[in-house]
Each structure stands twice: as structure tokens, then as C-alpha cells.
Sequence to fold (371 residues):
Amino acid sequence: MAAEYFSPDEIDWTLSFSKKDKIPYGSHILYNLLENDCNIDTLITNNISLYEFFEVERPLKTNFIFLNYNFTISDIELDKILKYVKIGNDVFLSASDFSQNIKDSLKFNNSYFYYLPDSIILNFVNPIFDKSLYTYSKAFDNNLFNSFDTLNTTILGKNDADSVNFIKVKYGNGFFYLNLEPLAFTNYNLLYKKNYEYAFKSLSYLKNQKTYWDEFFKPANVTNSTPLQVIFKSKSLKTGYFLTLIGLAIYLIYIGKRQQRIIPIINPLKNTSLEFNEIIARLYLHRRNHKDIALKRFRYLLEFLRSKYGLKINEISDFEINTVIEKTGVDKETTDKLFDLKKTIDLEKTITEDTLFQFNMCIENFYKKCK
Fold:
């Protein structure tokens, strides 16, 4: 454990191309130089898909920078970016390979193979740049354009084998700048001698205007899609994960024997609703609040008339009584007796048990005669 703790961290050679990563193949240096030291009007990071981006934004006279090892987009997203360039915007796209729909739309084809010699040299065709050669040695690919539309394409850069690896493609009123050497824009290669010049000379073709930096089309958004992939990316987390699995397996084999527990007897639940009602009734009788019981009985009667006949009685009047007689079909004598007794109870502060009994009989008789 001590040796593991004090050992130096291994260098992470993951192909990231993200502005957040300071690892060799991240783009932290490039982004910060573009943001702080270069002549760019505004640099904005985009973290959403092109479909979502163009549903919200309608940019004009802007740039879009994409860096990735393999650049693949859907047909819907490609249609969005083509319309974006067609109206006069520019796209700088650096990748070792592109999805077939991009190649078909911009009429080019490319190939790549691992460059066996120790180094590869890149340079520019444009005479305004000096004749400096930029050498790259660490696991660099040798990529080239096999074919392209010569009518709308301008060659911007080549390698030491005179193979084209950087072109400008006119599309509508805008341009695509396609570069096949994305590793040249990463932290490691920007810090090697004067290779930073190659990256910034390549980007200098973009106009001085608002620029979007893509963070959505990055390898991390695909490879780190599950928690397990995050664990396997770290040596320490991976070791701890497998040790935990091995420990659980040993526990299940030698210790985790199943033991049968006594099944407890569960008695069925009792229906205590009747007992509860009896207790409440005794409580009311013990308090001898007969008027309160009578008012509650009458309230239940009003709820019965509302729910069954749609009658909402706010006050006892001749009109309301006649409406009740008409709706329920109860004779006038029974109805008048019930409501007259209710009026009498309302006028009294307290009532006797006999009055409560008589009022209850009137209500029960009314229920029986309802049609």
C-alpha cells in the first residue's frame, strides 16, 4: 500500500481533445491561448449536440472549431452544420477520420496509416507563411486526402511526403477548413519546440469574429458513459473493484450459508370499526350533548340529499322544503314534521334525550320513504 501510494502517477495518454484536460492529448493550452492571448472576438464553449444548438441559436458571421480523433455525426446534425456554413459561417474541423456522410457531402476521401519512422514533418503551402517545418514524433499518424473536389477546394498544408493533409472547402457563402492532424493541436505537441506555430497558423484562416468551441463531440462523452468505465479508467479504482468482487465471492462460498428462520405467526387483522363506532356513541351519550348529536344527524341527511338528489340546502324555507318533497317523493306531512322539529332544535340551547330520539325517528322514517 505504501509503495502504491508513493509511486509516481502514470502519464495518461488518453485521446481527450477536451479544453478541461491538461493531459498530453487534451486541449487545455490551446483553448486558454485562444481565449486570452489570440485575436478572437468572443470564444464560447458549446456542450450540447448540434441539433439542440441550432434549435436555439441562429448564428451569422461566426466560426465553429471541432477537434476529435474520429469525427462522426448523424445526418440530421450534418444537415444543420451544412446550412450553418452555407449562409456564411466557417467551420474548422480537425480529425484523423470523418464519417462517410461528411465525405460524401463535401466530396473528398482520406486515408491514414501509422507512420513507421520516428517523426513526421508538417508544413504549409501558403507563401505568406515562412518555410518553417514542424516535426512531430510521439505516436503521430500520417494522414492524407486521397481525393477532393478541385473546383471548390484549396490546398493549405502538406506533410514531408508531399501528401495533402489540410484543405479549405468552399460551401455556399462559407468555408470548411479540414485538417487531418488533430494531435498537432494537443497539449503535448504545442509544447514541443515551436510546434504551437503550426496550430495557430492553421487557425489563423478563421476570421476575427465570434467563435464556438465544441466540447460535445469528444471521446470522453462516449467512453465515460457508465460508472464502470470511469472505474476501469483508474488503476487504483479498478484494483479495488476486483478485490471487492473477489472478497464477496469468498464470503458467499464459505460464510454466506442460508439459515432458515422461524416463520412468525401473523394473526389476521380484526374489524374494529363497529367497536370504534360504539365507543364514539357512548362518548356522546356520556357527555349528554344531545343537540350536537341531532345536528350531526341532520348534517348527514343534508349530505344524503346532496349526493343522491343534487340538493344543496343552505337554509330551511318553504321553497327548499317543497323542492325536497318534489325530488325525494316523501309526503309533505313527514317532511314538514322533520324540518319543523329541526327548527325547534335550532332554537333550543339543549334538548332532551326524548327529543333526540323523536328527531332520529323522523330522519329514519324520511329515509324509508325516499324513492
Summary: Residues 274-369 form one domain. The two ends are 88 Å apart (CA to CA).
